[in-house]
Specification:
Two copies of one chain form a homodimer. Chain A is an alpha/beta fold and 385 residues long. Chain A has helices at residues 15-24, 38-41, 44-54, 71-83, 95-107, 115-119, 182-200, 208-230, 235-248, 264-276, 280-295, 300-310, 319-336, 353-361, 374-384; strands at 2-10, 30-34, 61-62, 88-93, 131-134, 146-151, 156-161, 169-172. Chain A has 15 helices and eight strands. The radius of gyration of chain A is 20 Å and the shape is globular.
C-alpha cells in the first residue's frame, strides 16, 4: 500500500499558503506549538503570527517543546485544548514539535491518557487536523503519520502511528533553515541518511529499482551535509536537503519492501536519547555502524551494495571485504562531519552498557535483516563503545 | 506544491482491497467501466465482479471504451449515471478507461456538457469518487488528476485537470498485466519514458537530485521493456514496470521544476492519435525524437545530460555531439523494441504534414525548453516524416 495525503507547500514564503488553507476550512483558532527561540530568530514566528492575525485566526500558544520531546509537554497541551477547544494544531518547528503536535491532535479527541496510543492500548479514532510549518528537516514527520515521544517515568521512547495524524498541510520553506546551527544540520542529515539506509539495508531482494532511487538520495546527502557546513546559507543545498528529508521517511522508500525496512538502528538509538538525552542524529551515528558491524559477517550482501552504490566500486573484491569497507567509509563520513561514532565519545560509561542493553532489549526480538535477541543487543552496544 | 491523495494497493490479489474500501464507504452500487475483451481474459473482470457480488454491491456496466478514448462514450456513461445514480465509478482497464472514468465522475455531477471541462469553460466543483483497477500501466492515470479525451467533431484531443478527479483508491496488480500484447507493453513503456523525459529535458537547472532519481527510472524502463518482450510473464519485471508507470506522471517528478515539465511531445503526438488513431506510445516514439532534433542545436545541454545518464558517458566530446548521440540512441532503442520512429512508418502521407501542423499549432505557443510557434511545429512534423 502507498498513501500519503499531506499537502506540501515547498519553497520560500509558503507560510501564507498554510494560512490560506486554514481560512478555507473555516478555522477560527488554532493551538500554536513550538520549541525554543529559533523560531523567533529565523523569522518563522513573525511570518506565521502576522499571517494568522491578518486572517483573523486566534493562536493560543505553547512553547518549550524539547528535542526528544516529552509526554508531559504533550499532556499539558492536551489539557489546554480540552479546556479551550481549537480547530487545528499548528506545529512550528522541527520533528519534535511535529511529533508532539500529532500526539496532541489525537490526545485532544480521546478521553483516556494519550500514552495509551504509544503503548498500543488504544487506537486513534479521531484527531484534530494538523497544519504545520517545518523549520528543521530530519524526521519526515511533516509528511508521515508517526510520532515519537519519550516518557522518562516509563523509561520509554516509543512511537505511535495512525493514518489520522498525517499533517493535513505542511509548509517546507528551506529559507527558514539557513540559520540552523551546524550540529543540527549534521544530526538531521544523519537521521535522513539512516531513514534511507534502514530501508536499503533490510536485506530484501528484488528491490533494485527502488534501491537505485534511494541510493541517489544517500549520495546527495553525503554531498549536501559538507556543502552546508561550508556554507549554511546555501539555499539550493538547503532545499535539496529539505526535500530529501521529507522523502526519506515518508513511506515512499518502503514501497516494494516486504518488511518496509529494518529500523533497528533507530530503536537502539532511542535508548541513548531516552537515558542520556543524546541528540537523535548523534545516536544513529553511533548505533548504525555498530549494528552493521554485528550483522555484516553473516549478511554481507546489503552492505556490499552500499559500498558499490555510495562509496567505492571495487573490482575483484569479495562482498565481505566490500561490506567492511562500506561500514568504515560510513563511519569516516560521520566523523568528518563532526558526529560521534562511539558511546565513549558521548561520555557514556562502559559500566552502563548492560543498562542500555536491558532497556533496548525490552523490545526484542526486533529487526528484519536479523531479528535481534537480547544477546545481539548487548553485543551491538559493546561494539558501539 | 506536492500532493497525491490516492490510496494505492499494489501487488497480486489486491482487487479485494478495493472492494473492502467500497464497502467501508457504504457503497451500494457502482458504475463499472471497461474497454475490450482483455479484462475477461486476464481474470480481472471475474475477480472484481465476484468480490463486488460477495459484498452486495450492484455494478451496472459499460464496456467498449477505446484507446484514445472518445467523448461520446463518456457522455453515454454520464447519461446512465444521471438516470440511475451510483455511489462511485469503477474503471477496470488502462489509462483510457481511467481517463474516461474521471470525466464521467465529474460530468455526472455537472448540469452542462462534460466537454466544458476540457475547453476550460467550467471547473469541476464536485465529482463521484473513483475506485479503479489498473490492467495496463502507462499513463499514471491511476494516481493523477488528469483525463485526456478525444472529441473528433472538434478535432481535439485535450486534457482536463482537477484535484477532485484523483482516484480515491487504485489497485495496481502487476499479475493482471502478464497477458498484455507485446505492442501494448512497448507503447506503454514509451509513454512512461516520455513522461520522465518530458520532465528531465525541460531545461530547468538546479534539479540535480530529482534528475538523478528520474534517470534511474529511465534506465530501468530501458532494461524492462526488452525483458518483457523476451518474457511477458516475468512478474518482477511487470511489477517494476507498473511502479515506474505509476510514479512517472504522478506529479512526483515535477517537484522542484519551475515549469513542472515540457509536454510538447505529448501535444504533438495527440494530433497523430486524433487524426489517424495512432496508439499513444507510438505517437511519442515518432514525435519525441523529432522535437529533440529540432531543439538540440540551440539547447544541447539537457540532451547531453540524457546521453551521460542513460546512454554512453563519453570523454572529450562536446555537449552538441553528446546531444545528437543521445537522440540517435533513443531512436535506436525505440526501433529495437519495434516502435515506429517516423510518420512514414505510420503510413501518414507527406502531403498531410501541413494539416498535422495546423491542428497542433492551434495550441501555440507551447513548450518550456522552447516555446514553439507554428513554424517550429511544422518543422518538427517535417523532421518526423
Amino acid at each position: 500500500m502507498w498513501w500519503n495525503p499531506t499537502i506540501v507547500f515547498f519553497g520560500k514564503g509558503t507560510i501564507t499558503k498554510l494560512v490560506e488553507q486554514l481560512s478555507a476550512m473555516g478555522a477560527r483558532s488554532v493551538l500554536l506549538l513550538y520549541g525554543g527561540k529559533a523560531v523567533f530568530k529565523n523569522g518563522a514566528y513573525a511570518q506565521l503570527s502576522q499571517a494568522l492575525t491578518k486572517a483573523g485566526i486566534a493562536f493560543p500558544e505553547i512553547g518549550g517543546v524539547k528535542s526528544n520531546p516529552r509526554i508531559d509537554k504533550v499532556r499539558e497541551a492536551i489539557a489546554r485544548v480540552k479546556a479551550s477547544p481549537v480547530d487545528a494544531i499548528v506545529p512550528l518547528g522541527g520533528g519534535s514539535v511535529f511529533d508532539s503536535a500529532k500526539a496532541v491532535a489525537a490526545g485532544a479527541c480521546y478521553n483516556g491518557d494519550v500514552w495509551d496510543f504509544f503503548e498500543g492500548k488504544a487506537q486513534v479514532q479521531k484527531a484534530l487536523p494538523i497544519f504545520g510549518v517545518l523549520t528543521a528537516s530530519a524526521s519526515s514527520s511533516e509528511v508521515n503519520g508517526i510520532a515519537v515521544v519519550s516518557n522518562p517515568e516509563k523509561e520509554a521512547k516509543v512511537s505511535m502511528n495512525s493514518p489520522l495524524i498525517y499533517p493535513k498541510v505542511s509548509v517546507i520553506d528551506p529559507s527558514l533553515q539557513t540559520s540552523l546551527p551546524e550540529r543540527q544540520t549534521v544530526n538531521g542529515g544523519i537521521d535522513i541518511i539512516a531513514h534511507l539506509l534502514e530501508r536499503l539495508l533490510d536485506g530484501d531482494e528484488g528491490t533494485e529499482m527502488m534501491d537505485e532511487q534511494g541510493y541517489t538520495l544517500v549520495r546527495s546527502m553525503i554531498r549536501l551535509i559538507p556543502e552546508l557546513i561550508e556554507d549554511p546559507k546555501n539555499y539550493e543545498a538547503r532545499a535539496e536537503y529539505a526535500w530529501a528529508g521529507a522523502m526519506a521517511h515518508s513511506g515512499f522508500f518502503s514501497c516494494g519492501r516486504a518488511a518496509r525496512g529494518d529500523f533497528s538502528s533507530h530503536k537502539l538509538g532511542h535508548t541513548l536519547s531516552l537515558l542520556y538525552d543524546v541528540p537523535h542524529g548523534a545516536s544513529l551515528a553511533v548505533m548504525m555502524p555498530a549494528w552493521a558491524r554485528h550483522l555484516c559477517e553473516e549478511n554481507p550482501v546489503p552492505f556490499a551494495r552500499l559500498a558499490e552504490n555510495v562509496f567505492d566500486n571495487f573490482d575483484d573484491v569479495s562482498d565481505e571485504e566490500k561490506a567492511l569497507s562500506a561500514i568504515e567509509s560510513l563511519e569516516d563520513f560521520f566523523r568528518e562531519v563532526g558526529a560521534p561514532t562511539t558511546l565513549r565519545e558521548l561520555d557514556i560509561p562502559e559500566g552502563d552498557i548492560q543498562k542500555l542493553a536491558d532497556n533496548a532489549a525490552k523490545a526484542c526480538p526486533f529487526g528484519v535483516l536479523k531479528a535481534l535477541n537480547a544477546e545481539d543487543v548487548l553485543e551491538i552496544y559493546k561494539l558501539a563503545y
